[in-house]
Design brief:
This protein is of the alpha+beta class. The protein is about 40% helix and about 15% strand. The chain is built from 15 helices and 15 strands. The strands form five sheets. Strands 4, 5, 6, 7, 8 and 9 form a six-stranded antiparallel sheet that branches. The radius of gyration is 42 Å and the shape is extended.
Length: about 625
């Protein structure tokens, strides 16, 4: 038991350290902004709570959740076989899909949606990534995001030393999951549940259950997990990271709480401005309310008269004693500079978050170029979150793929879509198939719908003209953000082949009509294809005959030219009965056998003067 007490004490010590406490406080306050916890203007005043924090966070979460993810294994041109890289890409895509299906069975959002939520609202991401086994020894993909609010850890130069995730569970859930009986800690008449620590180090994993009176039990004893990183070193099967470019900064004399600055949420720039905006809008709301129910005073002889009914209700009758009068108080209005003050706050909120144009709101008519400039001003909020979720997915895929390559697990059947062009795949990939495939490269492309036409125009302009500004492959990958450039090029070539050749186009039309059940229309194109092929065959035969005639004409002209140069009369047709060579081919360029000479004697060395030997040749017809 000493080991479990030491381990629990180590976790609790880090959990209660000032850096983690202030970070948790900031995360809780930010989540209060997202939940739109009511703003309290005070008793007797109207309160206004802006929805700007929630709309801002949901907009960024939507960008990340719908971003186009590309999974690639970069391979140099010297590598002839790309099959291992393709299989590793399919394994990663399929493993992420299996993780999403597992989350859906739990009633949870997908992996991407949860990570986008934490990256935006917490400013951190954390979770578990490993291959695990069911009770029947079958393998499943276990990728579970953790709420960074409930995570504590220690790190060194090599990365994560250990990480622990804290959850609260009911006694029945603990009994069902770990077969442990522990009484929950009580706070007054209510119970806060049982604390469960999920602990991971570089070599071991354990579950610690903490109940009432600091009662501690192992839900799962320390067990070796044998997970290694891409370099082959032991590592914890978890992923962790902070969002944003700010490093860990330690103060010297200022006393500032710099721990909360490391890994900031989307509300970092506007956190205090929301309170000022709610205050100003609450004042507006209070004055509007007072205009509807304007304050009044009752003037009576003794000054003690009150009203039993509300005078502002429709149809109300208010009896007044003699000498009593109701007088409206002077109406209070907002200061003249209030509108300018609220406008300044609104401008600050847009600079710290997203401009109103990003939400489709145009306060006045502006040009498209001006609207584009306003939209690009939101990059400082989107890009750090994109880099954060990209780093998170790289950590996840490296751990999963490396663990699978090391063996010890059954073959995993994965399914998904390799890219936008490829068809749906479902296949088994063995660990040996991933050997030598290289590292995974993951990218997220976030772009707004209104950016699509501009990107297409830019791509077309870059490849037009006699000297394109960039190769097609670079334009497809960097401008249009195509996942698989090679398959994209092959698809374009196949499309051009169908359109360029009429017979191929007819075949495509026939296949489409057959698949749609329109066989009668398909027969029309089949007959047209038959006629087209017959016509092409006739044209080819005619072209062959023309070619033979050209050969004959060229041969006769060459023979006449040769005879004229030698002073001999033109050679007439061969005597009757003599073997004739091919039409139009002069005898001077024909072999002895083609001219009718018989080969006698040893074919390797004929006698001089005989057919096949050196010296004058003897024609059986008597002609030299």
């Amino acid at each position: 038991m000493a080991r479990i007490d030491d381990l629990a004490e180590q976790i609790e010590e880090v959990w209660e350290s000032p850096g983690f406490r202030t970070r948790r406080t900031r995360m809780e306050n930010d989540y209060g902004l997202y939940r739109m916890n009511p703003y309290e203007a005070g008793n007797g005043y109207q309160s206004y709570t802006s929805n700007a924090p929630k709309i801002l966070a949901d907009k960024i979460i939507s960008y990340l959740s719908n971003a186009q993810m590309s999974v690639r294994v970069p391979i140099s041109a010297e590598v002839a076989d790309r099959t291992p890289g393709t299989l590793k890409e399919k394994f990663v895509i399929g493993a992420l899909n299996l993780a999403d299906e597992r989350m859906q069975r739990y009633g949870q959002p997908s992996l991407r949606e949860q990570l986008a939520f934490y990256v935006v609202l917490r400013g951190w991401y954390a979770g578990r990534a490993m291959l695990n086994k069911h009770d029947d020894d079958t393998t499943y993909v276990d990728i579970t995001p953790f709420d960074p609010l409930h995570v504590c850890y220690e790190m060194d130069d090599m990365g994560i030393v250990w990480l622990a995730h804290k959850t609260k569970r009911s006694p029945s859930a603990v009994k069902r999951a770990f077969n442990v009986d522990v009484e929950p800690a009580s706070e007054g008449e209510t119970s806060s549940g049982i604390t469960v620590w999920d602990y991971y180090s570089r070599t071991e994993n354990a579950v610690i259950v903490v109940g009432d009176d600091e009662q501690k039990k192992f839900g799962k004893k320390l067990t070796k997990h044998n997970v290694r990183d891409i370099n082959g070193n032991p590592c914890a099967p978890v992923f962790l990271g902070a969002v944003g470019p700010a490093p860990w900064v330690q103060d010297e004399i200022s006393g500032d709480d710099t721990a909360r600055d490391y890994g900031e949420s989307i509300f970092a720039a506007n956190r205090d401005l929301y309170s000022d905006y709610n205050f100003a809008m609450s004042a507006y709301k209070t004055l509007v309310r007072r205009a509807v129910r304007r304050p009044y005073k009752i003037v009576s002889p003794d000054g003690t008269t009150t009203l039993d009914t509300d005078p502002w209700q429709d149809g109300s009758e208010v009896p007044l004693p003699a000498g009593t009068d109701i007088r409206l108080m002077e109406e209070v209005t907002m200061p003249l500079d209030t509108g300018a003050f609220v406008g300044l706050i609104s401008g600050e909120l847009q600079r710290g978050g997203l401009s109103n144009v990003s939400y489709g709101e145009l306060p006045f008519a502006i040009s498209g170029f001006a609207a584009k400039i306003l939209q690009e001003g939101s990059a400082h909020q989107i890009e750090p979150r994109v880099k954060g979720i990209t780093s998170c997915y790289k950590q996840i895929t490296e751990i999963i793929s490396m663990q699978y390559e090391l063996g010890g697990f059954d073959t995993v059947s994965v399914r998904g879509r390799h890219n936008d062009i490829a068809s749906y795949f479902s296949e088994e990939i063995k660990p040996a198939d991933l050997e030598g495939a290289g590292a995974i490269d993951i990218n997220f492309g976030v772009r707004m719908p209104q950016d699509e036409p501009q990107l297409v125009t830019m791509a077309q302009m870059m490849r037009e003209g006699p000297k394109p500004l960039a190769p097609d492959e670079w334009i497809w990958e960097n401008v249009l953000q195509i996942n698989d450039v090679e398959q994209f090029r092959n698809a374009i070539s196949a499309q051009q082949a169908q359109v360029t050749e009429p017979k191929a186009l007819l075949l495509t039309l026939i296949e489409g009509l057959m698949h749609s059940g329109e066989q009668e229309k398909a027969l029309i194109y089949i007959d047209l294809l038959r006629k087209t092929m017959k016509q092409d065959q006739q044209q080819e035969t005619a072209q062959d005959m023309q070619f033979q005639q050209l050969l004959m004409t060229a041969g006769m002209q060459a023979q006449q030219t040769d005879q004229q140069m030698q002073g001999a009369p033109p050679q007439g047709p061969p005597p009757q009965g003599a073997p004739a060579g091919p039409p139009g081919i002069p005898g001077g360029v024909m072999s002895s056998q083609m001219q009718g000479f018989e080969r006698v004697g040893d074919p390797r060395q004929a006698a001089p003067g005989t057919p096949g030997g050196p010296g004058p040749r003897v024609n059986p017809l008597g002609r030299m």
